[in-house]
Design goal:
Shape: rod-shaped
Strand order of the largest sheet: 5-7-8-4-3-10
Largest sheet: 6 strands, mixed
Strand content: 15-25%
Order of helices and strands: HEEHEEEEEEEEHEEEHHHHHH
Number of strands: 13
Structural class: alpha+beta
Number of helices: 9
Helix content: 25-40%
């Protein structure tokens, strides 16, 4: 008895193969007696349902051709920190089942039926980049045609690995890959193809996605490389999905308020350098900008260093430098008003160069008694005269009455020299204001140009 089992098993296998090799004639035609106006009797397809555990072929040496296509219906999330793309796909798979066929003219003119996928063999095609469990809703149906063509449409929420580059955020474009391949069947058993044109897939997906979320679909391309794993060769289809972020939201909420604050800080240079309101004004702006950054930090990527973070850091740095420059100028003017130190030679030469007739800054006429030595201050709007910073000294008549005859001749010269030093230090502070103000203008112009170029490209 034990020796008879191999013989009986071989006999049954040969008998089954002989039935399968009879051809695709009437041997696999479904009887139309199960079709009526009330539906289809499941018993008519019971022989097909019993074969769902095996690949539906009449010759196992012939691979099954499965056509794969999809529609990208939504881009749910792009996680730059975890480098993940979460998207919603409508995947369509089509293949032939040679054990299903009927005559639609005899079977109440029905050439397509919907069958529960639980009763059919399904190809194990997965998205290779997926990092989450595929959770398809239960109770899905597949369409079966009278020629045995099966069309299986299913929604897929795919969380896939994607190499994200956020340097140009929020003007970034991402290229992600969705690779469809079988987990079990090699090229000897399954070959993948497409039944739709790539342009049709792209246009349909673009029309569906164009009004959803902050991302827009640019293009979809494909490649059909083979994947070698050990001695096994697998067929696969790689779709390259190019998406672009819509930057309007980030421009309005990040770039525009930041630019306004920097522009207001630049206009503060029109306040007099010796004004008591200039430093508090800049401190208020700096505190307001820090509060703005704290409120908007959730809009920035959690990882990496995008270009917009560099821009915000430069804005903050300019405002800090502007405040420090204001403090330094206030110190210089206070020092010049009390005891003005001598001006360094290199700074004196720079002032001479900046206030030469070729420059935009005018030169004030030299004072009496210091011909050819005195430099007039370059005034910003509202700047006080340097002479107001130093108290007037006693005149010659007052010196004689005080009993100091020698001071009558030296006092005007000392006073003129002191006023000359005050004038030079005031002009030095104005020159620093002018340079920093031009740096502000250059930074704003560069930022606006960069935004326009990135937005258009």
């Amino acid at each position: 008895m034990e020796g008879g089992w191999p013989f009986r098993g071989g006999f049954l296998l040969c008998f089954t193969i002989s039935l399968l090799l009879q051809g695709r004639g009437d041997a696999f035609t479904i009887n139309c007696s199960g079709f009526d106006q009330h539906g289809v009797d499941p018993a008519a397809f019971q022989a097909v349902f019993d074969r769902k555990a095996f690949r539906p072929v009449t010759n196992f040496s012939v691979p099954t051709h499965v056509n794969v296509s999809f529609i990208l219906s939504a881009i749910l999330e792009v996680d730059a920190q975890l480098q993940l793309l979460t998207s919603l796909l409508w995947v369509t798979m089509m293949w032939d089942n040679p054990f299903i066929s009927w005559n639609p003219e005899e079977c109440i003119s029905s050439n397509k039926l919907s069958v529960l996928v639980e009763n059919l063999w399904l190809p194990d095609i997965l998205v290779m980049e997926s990092v989450d469990v595929d959770r398809a809703p239960p109770g899905l149906n597949a369409y079966v045609s009278s020629e045995g063509r099966i069309q299986y449409d299913r929604p897929m929420k795919v969380t896939s690995i994607c190499n994200l580059d956020i340097f140009y955020f929020p003007f970034d474009q991402q290229n992600c890959t969705l690779t469809f391949s079988s987990f079990l069947y090699t090229v000897d058993s399954m070959i993948l193809g497409m039944d739709k044109e790539l342009g049709m897939i792209t246009n349909t997906s673009r029309n569906v996605v164009q009004t959803q979320g902050e991302w827009e679909l640019l293009d979809i391309n494909k490649a059909t490389p083979k994947m070698q794993m050990g001695s096994n060769l697998y067929d696969q289809i790689m779709f390259y999905v190019a998406i672009r972020r819509r930057p309007t939201f980030y421009i309005i909420n990040l770039l525009v308020p930041s630019s306004f604050l920097v522009a207001i800080d630049a206009l503060s240079f029109y306040l007099p350098a010796e004004s008591e309101n200039r430093a508090p004004f800049k401190i208020t702006l700096l505190l307001g900008y820090n509060v703005f950054l704290l409120m908007m930090k959730d809009l920035l990527p959690a990882s990496g260093t995008p270009l917009i973070s560099v821009y915000l850091a430069l804005c903050l740095s300019l405002m800090v430098v502007s405040l420090l420059e204001t403090i330094f100028i206030t110190y210089l003017l206070h020092l010049a008003a009390t005891q003005p130190p001598p001006l360094p030679r290199w700074l004196h030469s720079l002032l001479l160069h900046r206030t030469s007739p070729r420059k935009c800054c005018p030169v004030v006429a030299p004072q009496r008694g210091n011909s050819g030595q005195s430099l007039g201050p370059a005034h910003l709007p509202g700047t006080k005269e340097p002479v107001e910073l130093v108290g007037k000294g006693p005149g010659p008549r007052e010196a004689e009455l005080s009993g100091c005859p020698g001071s009558a001749s030296t006092q005007p010269e000392d006073e003129a020299q002191k006023q000359h030093l005050v004038s030079l230090w005031v002009q030095c502070s104005h020159m620093m204001d002018s340079l920093l103000f031009r740096l502000y203008l250059l930074f704003l112009a560069t930022s606006i140009t960069t935004v326009i170029v990135l937005w258009n490209t």
